[in-house]
Amino acid sequence: MDDATAAEVDSGAAGASGAKLVGLTKDSVNMGHWSIELATIAASDLGNFNANKLYVNVMTPADPNGAIRGQINASSTPPAAPTLTQLKSTAFSVCGGCHTGGGTSLPASMDLTPSHIYASIVSVASVEQPALQRVKPGDPNNSYVVQKLEGAATITGARMPFGGPYLDQATIDQVRAWITAGAANN
């Protein structure tokens, strides 16, 4: 909502108006994004959050009291992380074409054919950056596979898949979710 003039998190059950808890700040790059970092809240506010008694209120010139209201639902659970089996047919579907195993240098020295992906990447040191694991269970930011898929400035060599087309962010987020959930061999 580009014409928003203010946004805030308020206390109140669904359908009830309440007091302002914290104001949100408009992003200077994406004018439709509002956020806040490290807001101080009281224990009672945490109780209201857990009881689904907080909402976001967005104000506009046409409706200075709030044009959009969205109840915050603390009981929502995020979708389950994908399984490695699912990722083999999406994120890792092209890897085995180059990473065939049996070679003496990359890419052939890493075996990313479907039956060998887990053993080749989970808790295994990267050849290009040995201080990093290819996949560090629970830590996608420090997993070299994620850095290679995202084309991080700190990688050695090329972004993967080599030469593109690169994975969209939604697919990379699925890899991140699998790693965050522990990178199980499932």
3D structure, described in words:
- By secondary structure, this protein is an alpha+beta fold.
- 20% of the residues lie in helices and 13% in strands.
- It contains 5 helices and 6 strands; from the N terminus they run E-E-E-E-H-E-E-H-H-H-H.
- The strands form 2 sheets. It has a 4-stranded antiparallel sheet. Strands 3-4 form a two-stranded antiparallel sheet.
- The radius of gyration is 22 Å and the shape is elongated.
Structural class of the helix and strand makeup? alpha+beta
Count the DSSP helices.
Answer: 5
* Backbone CA Rg: 22 Å
Write down the secondary-structure element order. EEEEHEEHHHH
Number of strands: 6
Write the layout of secondary structure elements.
Elements: E1 6-11, E2 20-23, E3 25-26, E4 34-35, H1 43-50, E5 54-59, E6 68-72, H2 84-88, H3 117-121, H4 144-150, H5 169-180
Antiparallel strand pairs: 1-2, 1-5, 3-4, 5-6
Summarize the structure in short.
With 186 residues, this protein is an alpha+beta fold.
Properties at a glance:
four-stranded antiparallel beta sheet, elongated, two-stranded antiparallel ribbon, 20% helix
